[in-house]
Design a protein that fits this description.
Elements: H1 21-28, E1 32-36, E2 39-42, H2 44-63, E3 67-68, E4 74-76, H3 77-83, H4 85-88, E5 94-97, E6 103-106, H5 111-121, E7 130-139, E8 154-164, H6 167-187, E9 193-196, E10 207-213, E11 219-224, E12 230-232, E13 252-255, H7 262-269, E14 277-284, E15 287-294, H8 301-307, E16 314-316, H9 319-326, E17 342-346, H10 347-350, E18 355-358, E19 364-369, E20 378-380, E21 398-413, H11 415-419, E22 423-425, E23 431-433, E24 435-442, H12 443-453, E25 455-456, E26 459-460, E27 471-475, H13 481-496, E28 501-503, H14 510-520, E29 524-528, E30 536-541, E31 547-551, H15 555-564
Parallel strand pairs: 3-7, 15-17, 17-20, 27-28, 27-29
Antiparallel strand pairs: 1-2, 4-6, 5-6, 7-8, 8-24, 9-10, 10-21, 11-12, 11-21, 13-19, 14-15, 14-16, 18-19, 21-24, 22-23, 25-26, 29-30, 30-31
Helix pairs in contact: 1-12, 2-6, 2-12
The protein binds adenosine-5'-triphosphate and magnesium ion (MG).
Adenosine-5'-triphosphate (ATP) binds next to β8, β21, β24 and α12.
Length: about 575
Amino acid sequence: MKLSKALMLTMREVPAEAEISSHQLMLRAGLMRKMASGVYNYMPMGLKALKKVEDIIRDEMDKAGAQEFLASALIPAELWKESGRWDTMGPEMFRLKDRNDRDFCLGPTHEEVFTDIARNEIKSYKQLPITLYQIQTKYRDERRPRFGVMRSREFVMKDAYSFDKDSEGLDISYNAMYEAYKNIFFRCDIECKAAEADSGAMGGSGSAEFMVKSEVGEDDIVFCSACDYAANIEKSPATAEVMKKEELKNLEKIHTPNAKTIEELVSFFKVDSKMFAKTLIYKIDEKVVGVMVRGDREANEVKIVNALGGAVEVELADDKTVFDATSAKTGFAGPINLKVDELLVDEEVSNMYNFIVGANETDYHYTNVNYNRDFTGKVGDFRKVTEGEKCPKCGAPINIARGIEVGHIFKLGTKYSESMNAVFTDQDGTQKPFIMGCYGIGVNRTLAAVIEQHNDENGIIWPLEVAPYQVIVVPAVFKDEVQMKKAEELYDALKAIGVDVILDDRNERAGIKFKDADLLGIPMRITVGKKIAEGEVEFKLRSSADLEVIAYDKVIDRVKEEFKKI
Ligand code: ATP
Ligand code: MG
């Protein structure tokens, strides 16, 4: 591409609306432009980079034996009604009607569509296993679109679906995708962790999220300081702290005016927050559920929902529901005489001695409370782990960091094949539902994550495989005919061997050209300047400050050397 003929969209200023570096740089380098909240148009440079990510994904999917399909983004409601998700997807789904008043949606994901394809086209075990994938536009009316294409309302997803005849087959298909994902993110030069993820109340068979660490991430990832353990905090098991045994003391009711939060209670009783157990009242679908965790711990809603066998809606109860359950104002709930459908007690609480809880009476607390003597409930792991606790795999201290999910792989089992009656005939002649897996990667989000991890104050620093262009040739002085001619020859020669190359033939000062080249993040820059008189050019990597002076005839070899490193 010759810059004199291209639409150059670089901006020097940092756009005010962009909070994170990838969003700022995607705008400053002119990769994309916003059209509406969470809706972006890709400019040529951005599209080229996006295609590079797609190429890597496609290559690895093909290598893993998956077959590319392309389904429609416009999906009839019937399929979603069959799976039951027409009602549960909520406002995130873009819904529309056709001229005959029939319901459709713009696909936020395609489990239903691919299950439908499988039930129509795959009849026999002989056609299994099979993994189908597509790279296609998805639509989600996100509550908070933000960080540019990291969380947008229209985005490109690679989604794959595997169909197997049994769970051993699913394990193989799933592992193939796991390996492919590792390769994809390695080739994109993204540092990410495969974190164990929750697979819901139904499955438990397996799910992993590929998470990139980021301050602006919306998930907490737990990872071990010593081994390779990583998990979403929702999933990571907590080990109950063992408390020192004490003689059980007599229950006492204490007047605690104006003390209801743990901080207020700590200063009122002058004891550690570990001496309290808080009782949270949740509304989970139609049920009112009490959940007890130690004063210094946080409840884990995913573990709670799983313990109840799944739920659609989970929220902390409103004041009225709390009053009905406790006969007190919010803030004084406790396990003794609590009127709830179910009481879940974190294991740690069941091990405590002589602790303090709300008395289900406004302005009162009980002290010297003991599990089993004063109350009982369903004991289990209902809390979030905290920094420094023991790794469930090796026992070393764990760390917690914020992360963004770039990919997700999931063993679905028969969740969709059963509800949609997608069956095949097995070897023994019986009809069986497909055993399915699903596998997603956010293509735009991956691109943004590459930029988030590869930049400096001057701009993007593309890894070679994702770079929209790999080399930029800069004639230093526009009016110097020799420089221009030699630069052009080099440009043609690089193009001829398949390099994605830019010629900056604009009538601009060299300083401006260098600044743009840095902002665009082109991995290699070749400057044809004064030294061309001695047959030499300057070669510079975007990732390094060093300038190498190289013979004009040898510079293509130098470029090839970089390609060999991929
Ligand atoms: P998140 O928790 O970030 O909303 P999700 O769990 O909804 O993600 P999936 O349904 O598993 O995501 O979708 C597969 C992949 O699609 C995700 O791993 C992510 O990379 C990408 N993705 C999901 N939502 C968006 C979005 N709004 N914008 C861009 N990419 C997205
Ligand atoms: Mg989401």
